[in-house]
Specification:
alpha/beta, Carbamate kinase, two-stranded antiparallel ribbon, 9 strands, globular, binds glutamic acid
Length: 258
């Protein structure tokens, strides 16, 4: 198949296990194996990864995630280095190198900075052995720390880079047909994201689907910007390469313009 430009988004929820708040090295290894497979198939891949805060918990002796934003920023400052160290060593096992980019939403809006971000991304992508891993620069920006867990950032990166596909990995297998009956599985294709956002918002108060709403808003922006989106389970990393080929269990959102 023709090489594609792919943005993969790893949220904190899929980097960690339910029983431990810090990132799970086994899960990270599986995710990076999927990245390596995509690279080997010739695709260009950018990862948007959270997990900085979660990676700072253990070094700073926190048993659980605190709520005050300045402490979250401090945890992210410590945790980001741990996280990148793990990614660096996992990618090295596949002959790949990590490039760390810490950005804020303003970096994509500012007339001086945005072209620089674009230029360095384009330059990095000329090196096939490099995988850029992007996170919000939590020491200077708190948007994704407060809400979103990088959903919005991943959508922004995908549009900015001109990605073909944005894959948002989450704990659900996609956008469920019926949140009360998860065994019914996800809706395979959503043509009109506005309708499902409305539906998810109605369910939010009773079912706590706030995480999915943030993803759907990110999808809404991405598909309007010409990027096909996929919401799929981050626990089934083995299916990530087949998602690109149009297979696998997920919800697909076709781009509204090509
Ligand atoms: N940038 C944050 C991180 O990497 C976002 C996710 C969060 O709020 O935990 O941890």
């Amino acid at each position: 198949m023709a090489p594609k430009r792919i943005v993969l988004k790893f949220g904190t929820g899929i980097l960690t296990r339910k029983d431990a708040p810090e990132p799970d090295p086994v899960q990270l290894r599986k995710l990076i194996e999927a990245v390596a497979l995509l690279k080997r198939a010739g695709h260009a891949v950018i990862v948007v990864s959270s997990g900085a805060v979660a990676s700072g918990l253990k070094p700073l002796d926190f048993k659980q995630r605190p709520s005050d934003v300045t402490t979250l920023q401090a945890l992210a400052a410590v945790g980001q280095t741990h996280l990148m160290h793990t990614y660096e060593s996992l990618l090295r096992d596949h002959g790949l190198h990590v490039a760390q980019l810490l950005v804020t939403h303003e970096d994509f809006e500012n007339a001086d900075r945005a072209p620089r971000v674009k230029a360095v991304l384009d330059r990095l992508m000329e090196f096939s052995q490099v995988v850029p891993i992007i996170n919000e620069n939590d020491s200077v920006a708190v948007e994704e720390l407060r809400y979103g867990d990088n959903d919005k950032l991943s959508s922004r990166v995908a549009r900015f880079w001109g990605a073909d596909v944005l894959i948002l990995l989450t704990s659900a297998p996609g956008l469920l047909r019926d949140t009360k009956k998860p065994e019914d599985g996800p809706i395979p294709v959503v043509e009109n994201v506005d309708d499902v956002i409305h539906h998810a918002e109605e369910e939010k108060t009773t079912l706590g689907t706030g995480g999915m709403i943030s993803k759907l808003r990110a999808v809404q922006d991405a598909v309007r910007g010409g990027v096909q989106c996929i919401i799929a389970s981050g626990r089934h990393t083995e299916q990530i390469p087949s998602l690109i080929e149009g297979q696998g269990i997920c919800t697909r959102f076709p781009a509204s313009r090509s």
